[in-house]
Design brief:
It comes from Tulasnella calospora MUT 4182. By secondary structure, the protein is of the alpha+beta class. The protein has four helices and six strands, in the order E-E-H-H-E-E-E-E-H-H. Helices cover about 30% and strands about 10% of the residues.
């Protein structure tokens, strides 16, 4: 995968016992979007730039062949690079889409995985806890709302 709004994979580490797996990616000095938004004043042009970057990164993943489901899109999983561009990261729940629209070779879990505040209604209320392109779009909408309005979603 190579896109300016998707974090680059530099390598990986797998322990000899196969109990620990880690990926290696560049260090992005400005932290994640959640911290960035509440850490300093941000203008509307910059906010719209973040929305554009997140949209471009997700479009790239969903347009890949086969399409890639991020599975946990939220401001904490968007890094800010040196040039103040948004970069999607944390692909721990990512999966490929098969011809049926679900992740190939994966068993549907009865346990929710991800961030409930950004999960689509069908994930929260249904028996099928399989992430989809559509659930990514829901998470994108929640993220865009939060970025555009500078509001934390689902808080009292």
């Amino acid at each position: 995968l190579r896109h300016p709004n998707v974090v680059e994979l530099l390598g990986y580490y797998l322990s000899p016992s196969y109990e620990i797996a880690q990926i290696v990616s560049p260090y992005l000095i400005n932290g994640n979007l959640r911290e960035y938004l509440w850490g300093k004043p941000v203008g509307m042009a910059q906010l719209l730039g973040f929305v554009r970057d997140i949209t471009a990164g997700l479009d790239y993943l969903h347009s890949y062949s086969p399409p890639i489901i991020h599975g946990d899109l939220r401001p904490a999983n968007v890094l800010i690079d040196l040039h103040i561009n948004a970069v999607l990261c944390d692909f721990g729940l990512a999966s490929f889409v098969s011809g049926s629209g679900t992740s190939p070779g994966l068993v549907t879990s009865t346990t929710l995985k991800g961030s409930p505040r950004y999960m689509s209604p069908e994930l929260l209320m249904g028996d099928d806890c399989t992430h989809s392109l559509e659930s990514d779009v829901w998470a994108w909408g929640c993220t865009v709302f939060q970025v555009s309005c500078l509001l934390r979603i689902w808080t009292p």
